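Researcher: Following up on the earlier apo prediction. This time include the ligand. It's copper (II) ion, with the SMILES given after the sequence.
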Amino acid sequence: MALPTIGLSACSEDSVAPLDPDNSDPTDTDPTVAPTPLPIPEMLVASTFNLEMRPGTREFLTDKTTPTKGYNGDYLGPTLFLRTGSAVTLNVTNNIGVNTTTHWHGMHLPAVMDGGPHQPIAPGALWTASFPVLNRASTYWYHPHHHAPVGQGVIFDPTSTGYQVYEGLAGMIIVEDDVSDALPLPRTYGVDDIPLIIQDRRFHDDGALLHFPTNFNPATDPALRKGGNFLVNGVEAAVLEVGAQVVRLRILNASNARIYNFGFSDNRTFHQVASDGGFLRAPVPLSRRMLAPAERAEILVDFGSDQGTTLMLRSFNGGMSNSLVPPPLQDTWDTADFDLLEISVGAARSNPVTTIPAGLTTVEAIPDSEAVNLGSARPFELNANPFGINGLRMNINVINETIRLGDTEVWEITNPSTQAHPFHVHGDSFQILTRDGFPPPENELGWKDVVLVRPRETVRIVKRFLDYSDSTNPYMFHCHILEHEDVGMMGQWVVEAGAQ
Ligand SMILES: [Cu+2]
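Model: Understood. Below is the ligand-bound prediction.
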């Protein structure tokens, strides 16, 4: 499939870097080439899903072939539709020629079904996960989570998580339940309910994915896969056509390392309705929503008065300055505003949603008094030199934390480093109690499975450990900057059934 090679010329402000698929000249735009409509990943609705991890190619750059990997296709994968309360079976076949896994990010499931480092899939092998869907309605995703031997060369290892996700292995999961059914939200997939999988990439001159610059020095460089080619659903500089109505965008930051500060080119207000693991109590009005790697946000955007106009989904990283990525680790795009997607508004579709609901659902706040360790929260210190957690690098043979089934715990995550780290916990969603002692903003008062911990910040989360115990097979906690994870910023925990 030929992909667009143009840079859209829709930017109205000089300070905004135009879309630039070749990433060579910020003024290099060619309005004579028609833009590509935003592709919508195929949605699979089933109780048994068959996923094949396979190699492919894409033409991201004009007349250049990029070797890629995908699920059931060349790049990314289908959207899996799951229903709370149903049973699901996922058959994953590894045809990418190297060891891998597939992890169901955010799902509450037995550890042996998690698809983490302890469920490797050998080349040619089939791995099956089956579990009841217990999650709340929200947006989740899947991606490889293989653990290559930790060492300086691990980020170049084609079996590492960062390498494989960068090649294109990722897809979205949508869970619906009785709560979402009852809400007056846009729900027609690809029409007014739009998946947006956001990624950044770099390319060699020959079109191959550029993992690191040729002059990359592992001793001094940040060793992060970041680039100035921004893909939405695997395509750069695409156009999303919507109706003049309320549209729901499911934004997934599936980038290896990039943090985005999403907003629109006209600075309009939008409403966040869901965070990683479920709906918020009520839509939260925002003009910016930051998402770190692996975070999701569902937002409602009212285009009801915009028929005949276009606007841009933009990342306002200029406003982030040095607060999350310190200067030695920055690239151009960490401190610039840049466009991700053009949105073209046409006539309303049939049966449009035209209003933002006043309320959504009840979110029971887990009382911290329920925690068995309120006075001595379980500590997690994020270490960047060398990378690790609590002074330890990931060791697949070491269980770092043991938790008792049925307990509720407070975890305290501290970040003494100068860089923000998105901390992810497998197994089930948690809630954020405090950031530096204060309650988080309203749009973080829901269910989360990734929390961005800023430099020198302390975040307390509360999590229930219910339903599944397994003293042998662990879940993971880790930084979701994938290169950090790969070099050892990860640990393992088990849930044991013990005397209550
Ligand atoms: Cu990190």
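Model: Confidence is low (pLDDT under 50) at residues 1-31.
Researcher: Noted. I'll compare it with the apo version next.
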